[in-house]
Design goal:
alpha+beta, eight-stranded mixed β-sheet, about 30% strand
Length: about 190
């Protein structure tokens, strides 16, 4: 028997075994249980206060999201796309037609920075939320307007150094009571 045939038979056997196990044990075989909210928060968790008010549920298939804890006790869930390399950070949300009501982009920097942001090739206003390495919001630029041209696109400077930035739809912070000093807990794989 040739090696290729042996490999093919082996792979076929694995597929049959997988199908058998799935049939025997059902969907629960590969189900990963969601984190129990009463368990201790991971190291990335900053806020230790208990928030009982929840303003939005997370879809079951969403694995990357943030929880923003507001001073009023609200716990806002934001589904995020992570930008953690230079190209993703540079592109950001440029050329996007829209952003879901509770969706955003989470920019991750390797160290604290105080670089400006700008809005080239954007199609809608954003709230730009600057977060320190401890997970606290240190500055918010509300309703940042898209640039008409790249040549006349102003730099938007935060007041403080930051490690992370969350971009969400314009007016998001106002609608959800998010202010400087609010904390953010990351649920990023």
């Amino acid at each position: 028997m040739s090696r290729q045939l042996k490999l093919l038979l082996f792979l076929l056997g694995l597929v049959v075994l997988f199908l058998f196990l799935q049939e025997r044990f059902g969907e629960d075989m590969f189900y990963i249980k969601e984190k129990d909210e009463t368990q201790e928060q991971p190291e990335e968790s900053i806020d230790t206060t208990e928030n009982t008010q929840e303003t939005r549920e997370i879809p079951e298939d969403t694995t990357e999201y943030l929880e923003i804890n507001t001073p009023s006790g609200g716990n806002i869930h934001v589904n995020v796309e992570v930008a953690d390399d230079d190209l993703e950070i540079m592109d950001g949300l440029s050329n996007r037609e829209l952003l879901g009501d509770y969706d955003g982009m989470w920019f991750v920097f390797k160290e604290d920075v105080k670089n400006p942001f700008w809005m080239p090739n954007m199609k809608f206003p954003l709230d730009i939320i600057f977060v320190d390495s401890q997970g606290y919001i240190v500055d918010i630029i509300k309703q940042a307007q898209p640039c008409v041209t790249v040549d006349n696109c102003p730099n938007l400077f935060p007041d403080s150094e930051y490690r992370y930035v969350l971009e969400v739809n314009g007016n998001f912070c106002e609608l959800n009571g998010i202010v400087e000093g609010s904390s953010i807990v990351q649920h990023i794989n």
